[in-house]
Amino acid sequence: MPAKIILNPYSNRWGAGKRAGDVERILRDLGYDFELVITSAPEQAIDLAAQAVEAGFDPVVAAGGDGAISEVINGLLAGKAQSPVRLGILPLGSANDYAFQLGIPTDLEAACKNLVAAEHVLTLDAGRINDRFIMNDVTIAIGARVNIEAAKIKRLRGSMLYLAGAFKAIASYRSPTATIAWDDGRVENHITPLAYVGNGWRTGGVFHLTPEARLNDGLLDFIFADALSRPQIVRLLPKTFNGSHIHDARVHSGRCTWLRFTSPDPIPVLADGEIIYRDAHELDIRILPQALRVIAGESEGMRVMPAR
Question: Structural domains in the chain?
Answer without folding.
Answer: 3-118 (3.40.50.10330), 134-288 (2.60.200.40)
